[in-house]
């Protein structure tokens, strides 16, 4: 069982304004429950007892939302969230997250609880939830695979070479986590603050770290980046495709 999770909730979500003028994206309501509340509820149901939360935009709202959480909550603030990418937010979580296995989640993803179950059942140093699809474009965070092994990772990969899209949820074993945070430390120290954490995954994989694509293509999930995404998520709840209240 994994009892720790890292959630990245720092971004300003400018593409969702004015909906995010007075709240961070993770606190948008989808079907009577916020994105963050659902993620936390599913993590607690999976056995997580410690949450490490990367904050940035409107951090006080995130703190208030988790004030009554039954898990231990550690907040790691990225004061430069408006000028840096999510690798920096993950780097801020390094000291609090090292030493044990953990789930890492983007703070804007709605997902089936079975995603966590499948990641938990996988034994790779880095297990990545992947939707296998052949209609990838420039925007998706993509993976190249050989069987289930990930050979390359990143947004800039040629879509024609890629097997699918990472949905933004992974499981890291202690050795992989240590390697990741050392790499993040080097990147931030070198001023490479424009990196996605997936770029760092890609560099580690190229250097020999083992990573596996865990197929979640049959499970509902959605990343909320735009008003259209939010409308689609709410429609899925209405249709019962992604029920936020009954899991």
Helix-strand blueprint:
Layout: E1 4-9, H1 35-45, E2 50-55, H2 59-65, E3 72-77, H3 86-92, H4 94-97, E4 102-106, E5 109-111, H5 114-121, E6 126-132, E7 142-146, E8 149-154, E9 164-172, H6 174-189, H7 197-206, E10 211-215, E11 221-223, H8 227-239
Parallel strand pairs: 1-2, 1-4, 2-3, 6-10
Antiparallel strand pairs: 4-9, 5-11, 6-9, 7-8, 7-9
Structural category is alpha/beta
Poorly predicted runs are none
Estimate the strand proportion.
15-25%
What does the oligomeric state look like here?
single chain
In N-to-C order, the SSE pattern is EHEHEHHEEHEEEEHHEEH
In angstroms, what separates the terminal alpha carbons?
Answer: 20 Å
Number of strands: 11
Number of helices: 8
How many whole angstroms does the radius of gyration measure? 17 Å
User: Can you tell me the overall shape?
Assistant: globular
Helix content: 25-40%
- What is the makeup of the main sheet? 9 strands, mixed
Average pLDDT score: 93
Q: Could you explain the architecture of this structure?
A:
This protein is globular. It is built from eight helices and eleven strands. With 247 residues, it is α/β, with parallel strands linked by helices. Helices cover 31% and strands 25% of the residues. Strands 1, 2, 3, 4, 6, 7, 8, 9 and 10 form a nine-stranded mixed sheet that branches. Strands 5-11 form a two-stranded antiparallel sheet. The longest helix has 16 residues, at 174-189.
How is this structure best summarized?
With 247 residues, this protein is of the alpha/beta class. The chain contains eight helices and eleven strands.
